[in-house]
Design brief:
90 residues, mainly alpha, 3 helices, 80% helix, 0% strand, rod-shaped
Length: 90
């Protein structure tokens, strides 16, 4: 009887259906699950950091808008010639 049980146990072990085999499979699955949880947590933190950086970037971009440049008002011919020379130099 014991011999028969050993043979059945060996066959189940070969097929991967024994108690030891299932315990090993469960342990592997548990390790993988813990790694998946860690990665998900890291992903969430990275997403939060990314969002905060995007907000800061938008605020900086908003602050850096250029003011409109006023053209100099010309009242005399001498000033007109000087302003034309300065524009030509640009």
């Amino acid at each position: 009887m014991k011999g028969l049980m050993k043979i059945i146990g060996m066959i189940l072990g070969i097929l991967g259906l024994s108690a030891k085999a299932t315990a090993k499979k469960k342990a592997k699955v548990k390790k993988i699950d813990t790694k998946v949880k860690q990665i998900k947590k890291a992903k969430v933190t990275v997403q939060k950091k990314k969002a905060s950086v995007q907000k800061k970037k938008a605020a900086v971009k908003k602050a850096q808008k250029k003011k409109p440049v006023k053209k100099p008002s010309v009242t005399s011919a001498k000033k007109a010639r000087a302003s034309l020379k300065s524009r030509a130099k640009r």
